[in-house]
Amino acid sequence: MTMKRVIGFALFWVAVGLILSLILPNTFIEVISIILCILAGYNLFCC
What we know:
Layout: H1 2-20, H2 28-46
């Protein structure tokens, strides 16, 4: 239970870092990885 929350927290902040990297030219893969990290982090941390 605790490890799921830690992994979810880490994935959430990875997604935040990826959002900050959007000052670079936008690519489709960056946007997809942001969405996946946010969804995975939310599911692992909140559920």
